[in-house]
Amino acid sequence: MAFWKAWRFSRGTAQPVDPAMRAIAAAISDNLAALGLFVDSRPYGRSFFEIKASTSPKLITTPDGAEASGIALLLAGAYEPPSLVFEQINSLQRGLGRAMVEAVLDGAKARPDAFRRLRVNDLSPRLPDGRRWWEHVAAAHPEFDWVITHEEPFNSAR
Fold this sequence. Notes:
This protein has helices spanning 2-12, 19-34, 96-108, 133-140, and strands at residues 38-44, 48-54, 70-76, 83-90, 117-121, 145-149. By secondary structure, the protein is an alpha/beta fold.
């Protein structure tokens, strides 16, 4: 019974989405759709948006997947500081990964006061210069505060 009370309570107290979050999510979604991707953008409460985009209508964003290219993001306005989190990215087409990231960053610039912190867990291999792919992206966009981690997921095979 408690589950149903909580479910009814959470549905009945929906808060309006922060207009800045909505504007950024719309700009990012439009930019990703302009790349020819299928896009799904959903608010969660007042301060969170999840955005998925993929070359597949199934919205596949599995890293190292062989079926489709895609990206998954979380706009976390409730984090301190507010953060844009790159959750997953996969590109089967050379240059599409960079194009998806640029589309996201351009969308974030729609309201530069809302998100300065960008988070990513970079598991890409080291490039010939010794840096990883996301480190190059961060260097190209110093207008953002980057938090780049290199932690293996808990469910990965060892």
